[in-house]
Specification:
The structure is a single chain. Helices cover about 35% and strands about 15% of the residues. It is of the alpha/beta class. The longest helix is centred in the middle third of the chain and has 13 residues, at about 120-135.
């Protein structure tokens, strides 16, 4: 595992991925009742990621902007073809808008069961056929208690499921919690899982308390793991952000070197 722990250096082809980052613009309108984020444009982060061998980023629409994807789409347009996006839309979105997003690099829609402005089952049922037609996936920010519902929705939907932040399998979750069976069912359906958001899972750096859960999750979905930094780490003050390498370290320490390295490459398949 030591070799993997050191493997946060540039790759020869610059092809590594960070599958979960957000961009924020200080003057962009936010949803009522939400926090007001700082100014975190794409260019502030690209150089830092590139220095660590990460050339491609997946820009995930944050809940604070609701269905106004302007900031994320502007960032994608500034780097044609280089990055990918995951949008938030409602059932009324037009086909023309979905096609415009696709041309800019959007490859999925985020459904949020954690945020008060999140969407859920009704929007999924309305949008799934249109997303499937475009080869998009559905990304869920959810807790363990939501996994059974998500599994039922995806069982016959024919659309790829992606689960944010270790599928919510937090440090305090019992080993015999029913959510593990629900996650196994989702993995059996072909779900992908993001290795990200450690500080959202009841854990503090260096996140060693999550190693066992991380290994168990990885064993359920081999070849369908992607790593994300969750930059700019909205759980932290702007002047106290974690070092980039520190949010990679749990993967490098918990998984075997080839498995850890694959989590930074396999996003190329999911976001093609």
């Amino acid at each position: 595992m030591e070799e993997a722990a050191r493997d946060l250096t540039p790759s020869p082809d610059g092809g590594c991925w960070d599958a979960h980052v957000h961009v924020f613009r200080a003057d962009a309108p936010v949803q009522a009742g939400h926090y007001r984020p700082g100014h975190f444009p794409l260019e502030r982060f690209e150089a830092e990621a590139a220095a660590c061998g990460v050339r491609h980023l997946v820009l995930v629409q944050p809940s604070v902007y609701g269905t106004d994807n302007t900031v994320m789409l502007e960032a994608l347009a500034a780097r044609p073809g280089r990055h990918r996006g995951v949008a938030v839309v409602d059932a009324g979105v037009t086909d023309a808008e979905l096609d415009r997003m696709h041309a800019l690099g959007v490859r999925g829609v985020r459904f949020n069961r954690v945020s008060p402005v999140g969407n859920g089952q009704a929007a999924f049922l309305a949008l799934a056929p249109r997303l499937r037609q475009r080869g998009w996936h559905v990304q869920w920010y959810a807790g363990p208690q939501h996994l059974a519902e998500i599994s039922a929705l995806h069982e016959t939907a024919g659309i790829t499921c992606v689960l944010d932040h270790l599928a919510g399998m937090h440090a305090g979750l019992a080993q015999d919690d029913p959510a593990w069976g629900d996650l196994a069912a989702l993995a059996g359906q072909g779900a992908w899982i993001k290795l990200s958001g450690w500080y959202r899972l009841g854990c503090q750096a260096p996140y060693a308390a999550l190693h066992a859960a991380l290994r168990r999750v990885a064993a359920l979905a081999p070849g369908r793991l992607v790593w994300g930094s969750d930059w700019p780490h909205t759980a932290f003050a702007p002047d106290a952000l974690p070092a980039y390498a520190s949010v990679w370290q749990p993967v490098a320490e918990a998984l075997a070197a080839p498995e850890a390295a694959a989590a930074r490459r396999d996003a190329a398949r999911l976001y093609a």
